[in-house]
Structure formats: structure tokens, C-alpha cells
Design a protein that fits this description.
The structure is a homodimer. Chain A has about 170 residues and is mainly α. Helix content of chain A is about 70%, strand content about 5%. Chain A contains eight helices and three strands. Chain A binds a DNA duplex (30 and 30 nucleotides) through helix 5.
DNA sequence: TTGGAATGTCAACAAGGCTGACATATGCTG
DNA sequence: CAGCATATGTCAGCCTTGTTGACATTCCAA
């Protein structure tokens, strides 16, 4: 992008990379890749009477222990009724613990129990294994590009949430 | 992260790019980006009493006009009952046409009508606009990496379907 | 002619979204 | 202190989109 003048190969690429055909390929790549992305955890969850929604909650509670319900709602982008249904089962099953806030007692702070952390590991190990294989196949430069494009694709709110998590809230 | 003496920004990256932390970032990037990826079509579809399932069917029928139901089932990865419910409404609403096969009359070949193509355009224009913006922000080299990683993340079956579509079935 | 493939359809069910309404605690502000 | 706002939980009902199982029809191919 910032090299001087273009070689012909380079220029062709630059001129073509915004064609509808290229964009369509990216769209289909996202579609098919997302299926692979969720496939392994989904298989594990199916045996446990849990679904993708439980996985997401567990992931982000593990990521930011002590996070509040409101926080989680903002990250997950669902209604509190929808999240609550999921949290209720996770708490009932002893995977998540909900503690009343100390400074503000209206808030509930969420933590994984040991059992919750065990499931989280199992799920994220599976998902990371696929990610690791993909990263290895593609190489570090491809990975940098991958993240750049994904980040540019996010809504502003989500990009902020992503960066906050990434850089340590 | 990228300062420094060593060409080692590079070497650090190479050594670190398979850490769990890097993998987790990729996982979260996929999660947040996929939300953005589907957001614009979802908004359009909400007004039309259609959902993401209709969008997917319309997309792949447009992509491969005359495709059979079985073909579509393999690509979408859902049951025929689930797909059929979607196709029935699209056919009833005059967006999709189903023609009995000529060589094999058991097969149904699916085509978009003019109205179907109009909706397809509306949906994919919205999705492409976001993709285009992301591509432009990230640049052609990032885009190449993006596609490489996504392709490596797919299940084998899906990768085959993706490549077949990409290279012109 | 017969088996199997491709398709369509019915019924029932579940997950996980949604809205709307309402209850309870708690914090904050005038 | 009164009253409003905030954070959370919960009930009820609805929708989409996935699932399984069963069954009918049509038609190709051995």
C-alpha cells in the first residue's frame, strides 16, 4: 500500500481486489469459515444440552471474570431475557457463580466455577486447535491480514469492545 | 510490539503468533466480525418477514442458477425439511422458480425470478459495501491473508464447495 | 420390474432470538 | 425524605430456523 510505484503484478492486484467478484469470494469465505469455526465446540455442546449461546457466555465470563450482566449484554448483543435464560441454566448447573456487587449492590458479578472453567477449557481447546492449524497453514503475515480485515468489518461498538478486551480492559 | 532492535518485531511475531492469546484474539475477531458481516442484510430482511436462511438460499441460487435442491442442501448444511420451508415461501412469494429437471425429472432446478434478483442485489449490495470498506481499509495484502486463513479454517467439504464456486463450477 | 434416489410434506419439538409487562433492590438527586 | 433512574430477574408469548421421524410420489437404472 505504501510502496512506491507499482509493479504490474502489484497493480493488477490493487485494481482488481475491489471487484464484486473478489468481494463475493470474501463473503462466501466468511460464510463457510464461520461454519468451521463453530463446528468443534458445537459438537461438544450438543452432548451437554448446551448451545452456542452458552458457549459465548462462558467465553466472555472467562475472559473478564467479575463482569456484570449489563457488560455481558453489551458484548453479546442480545436481550437480557435471552441472556438470562442462558445464565440461569449455567448458574443452576454450577458452572457460573453470580455475586452481588460490593460497591453497587444492584450489580451481579459473574465468575466461572471450577466446573465452568473446565468446560471453558474443553471448548476453547477445540476451537483453538482449529485456529492454530489455520494459522500455521497460512503463516504469520496472512494472520495479520486476517485480523486487519476482520477488525475493519466490525461495527464501531463491537470494534471498541474487541479492542478493549484485546488490550486488557 | 513492533518497535525495536531485532528484525525481531518479525521474529517475535513468528514466535508468538501461535500463543493462546493470539488464537483467542482471532476467535474474538471472528465473533465480532461475523456480527458486522450479517448486520446489514439482517436489517433489510427484518422489514420483509424474511431471515438469514432466506438470504443464504437466495445467495447461492443466484450464484449457481439452475442448481438442484440436493446441491443447495450440501452447500447450506441444513436438512431438506428446513430448506424446504424456506424455499416454499420464496417460491410462493415469486422470488424463486422451481423447474422440473429435463434429463432427470426428479430433480428441481432453482432460479431467481426478476423479483428474486432484485432482492438479491439489494442484500448483496449492502453486504458488499461493508466488505468493500473493510478491504479498502486493510489493503490488498491483508485481504490475501484474510482469505488464506479463512480457507484454512473451513471443513474439507466446505473448502471444496468454496473452491468449486470460486473457480466457476 | 424393482430398488433406491430425489423430492415434497406433515407433525412435533427445541434452541435461542424477540417484545412487553411487571417486580425488586438499590443508587442518586433534588 | 421523595421520587426517579438503574440493574437485574422473571413471566408469557411469539418467531425463525434448526432438528427427527414417517410417509408419498416420481422416476432413473440395473
Amino acid at each position: 500500500m505504501s510502496e512506491g510505484r507499482m509493479t504490474q503484478g502489484n497493480m493488477g492486484e490493487s485494481l482488481l481486489f475491489l471487484t464484486d467478484e473478489q468481494l463475493r469470494q470474501g463473503i462466501e469465505a466468511m460464510f463457510f469459515a464461520y461454519r468451521g469455526f463453530t463446528a468443534d465446540p458445537d459438537r461438544i455442546l450438543a452432548d451437554l444440552a448446551y448451545g452456542r449461546a452458552h458457549h459465548r457466555a462462558i467465553h466472555f465470563i472467562n475472559r473478564a471474570p467479575g463482569t456484570t450482566v449489563n457488560n455481558l449484554l453489551a458484548i453479546l448483543g442480545v436481550t437480557k431475557q435471552s441472556l438470562n435464560r442462558v445464565l440461569r441454566t449455567l448458574i443452576a448447573d454450577g458452572l457460573v457463580e453470580s455475586r452481588v456487587g460490593t460497591s453497587d449492590k444492584r450489580e451481579r458479578h459473574l465468575y466461572l466455577t471450577d466446573a465452568g472453567r473446565a468446560l471453558e477449557s474443553q471448548l476453547s481447546d477445540a476451537q483453538r486447535a482449529r485456529m492454530r492449524a489455520a494459522y500455521r497453514d497460512a503463516g504469520p503475515e496472512a494472520v495479520a491480514g486476517f485480523k486487519q480485515v476482520l477488525e475493519a468489518m466490525m461495527d464501531n461498538d463491537m470494534r471498541r469492545a474487541y479492542v478493549r478486551l484485546r488490550d486488557g480492559s
